[in-house]
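2024-03-11 09:14:02 DEBUG pipeline.ingest accepted 1 chain
2024-03-11 09:14:02 DEBUG pipeline.ingest length=83
2024-03-11 09:14:03 DEBUG pipeline.predict start
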Amino acid sequence: MKGQPEERAIQLAQYMIENGATVRQTAAKFGVSKSTVHKDITERLYHLNLPLYTQAHAVLMKNKGERHIRGGMATRRKYRGDE
């Protein structure tokens, strides 16, 4: 997913919004680092497309609010031997 950072930022945000994806899931899908996804969404997109940024930011905040729950569930599965 090399190329223009502006185009990439828009594609990443659209994917994240449509799928409710996390930064990690989005990075894996597009073959870029988590840092790249986060920077594109939080910095570049703000200057490129404010309405899209607002939607993507809402997904980021939702995921941030849920991450401690997902982490706890992963730990539970690990120690139960479900993985």
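2024-03-11 09:14:41 DEBUG pipeline.report The chain has a mean pLDDT of 88.
2024-03-11 09:14:41 DEBUG pipeline.predict end
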